Amino acid sequence: MSAKIIDGNQIASEIREELAQKTRVLTDSGVRPGLAVVLVGENPASVSYVTAKERDCEKVGILSRDIRLSAQTTQEELISLIHELNEDEEIDGILVQLPLPQGLDEEAVIQTIHPDKDVDGFHPESIGRLVLNLDGFLPCTPHGVLKMLEASETPIEGSDVVIVGRSRIVGAPLANLMFRKASGGNATVTVCHTRTKDMAEKVRQADIVVAAAGRPNTVTADMVKKGAVVIDVGVNRVEDATRKRGYRLVGDVDFESVKDVASAISPVPGGVGPLTRAMLLWNTVSSAQKRLERS
Ligand code: NAP
Questions:
Q1: Residue 21: inside a domain, yes or no?
Q2: Coil, strand or helix at 121
Q3: Residue 97 annotated in active site
Q4: CA of 212 to the centre of ligand 1 (A)
Q5: Which alpha helices (H) appear in the chain, and where do they start and end?
Q6: Same domain flag for 152 and 109
Q7: What band does 182 get if pLDDT is binned at 50, 70 and 90?
Q8: Where residue 101 sits, what CATH number does that domain have?
Q9: Which residues line ligand 1 (CB under 6 A)?
């Protein structure tokens, strides 16, 4: 039997509707949620990501302040811009699109964003709060994965989860969210990486598999337990001469074979990506809500 497809576009669209409603209420109360989107340089993938984020803001009614800087921008100029945005009362969230051009210190930039406006959830304070199970911004991709599991009615509590990848933006925070003693958590989590021995054997034990390695075919059908739920975070370009642009996007999971073993699976594209963007709006709206409560 073929797996149920977890439709990220559909889930994200429902979340955006909910956020549009909250945005209307906030705006009527005099606090329109505002997001600053900072892009340095002209990396084509980054340009398309920020354009999509700005379009999302428009759909939901969030004010989007689009700031495009040249690749020659200095560290001092970027830091000074972030200080200005930290003080800007119209701005509830600051997103600096990564990666930054060479020569700019990403870590210093992330740490300059005020934790109250850290809607990407990358600031050490946000990460600390997540680990300590305190209220704070959740990073968008792991939060999106949880929303997909919730929407597909996949029980997390008590389940065995294998996450392939331990990056600070996906694998590591997702592992923390899934094992913490809280709603949406309480799973037993194994995190695999390039030094993991017998990864296939570990993945085969999982009720839920999350692939976030950045390499096509990292998870294949022989590695997946029958009936497991598989979430594919990976986004990889593979050459495809039949496409006008010369490539197509694939995930980390061999979708065609795994869909015959799994009970549910997310596709690429149209899976985690739309959720990542929706959770950025979610964080911006919740930041605006806090601004209203403070006023
Ligand atoms: P990353 O920083 O490169 O981390 C990749 C992780 O996967 C590392 O921990 C690495 O292990 C591990 N890994 C790589 N190859 C492996 C293999 N063959 N076996 C086991 N582990 C392996 O990447 P990332 O930023 O987390 O992103 C991962 C993927 O998700 C990328 O394709 C990225 O484009 C995509 N992504 C998608 C979204 C979305 O919204 N859809 C958002 C973020 C990222 P080591 O630590 O040992 O190196």
A1: no
A2: coil
A3: yes
A4: 4
A5: 8-28, 44-60, 75-87, 106-112, 124-131, 140-151, 171-179, 199-203, 255-258, 272-294
A6: no
A7: very high
A8: 3.40.50.10860
A9: 141, 164-167, 169-171, 192-196, 199, 212-215, 218, 233-236, 272-273, 276
Q: What pLDDT is recorded for position 206? A: 98
- Ligand 1, atom 47: closest residue by C-alpha: 194
Q: Are residues 116 and 190 in the same domain?
A: no
Nearest ligand 1 atom, CA 195: 47
Residue 94 token pair: 């600051």
Find the CATH number of the domain harbouring 168.
Answer: 3.40.50.720
Average pLDDT, the chain: 97
The Cα–Cα gap between 231 and 261 comes to 13
Domain with 210, as residue range(s), is: 140-273
The count of domains in the chain is 2
Please state whether the predicted TM-score (pTM) of the whole model is above 0.90.
yes
Q: Catalytic: 28?
A: no
The active-site residue, picked from 22, 53, 117, 147, is 53
The Cα–Cα gap between 46 and 82 comes to 19
289 noted as active-site residue: no
Q: How far is CA 213 from the centre of its chain?
A: 14
Helices 272-294 & 44-60, crossing angle to 10 degrees? 50
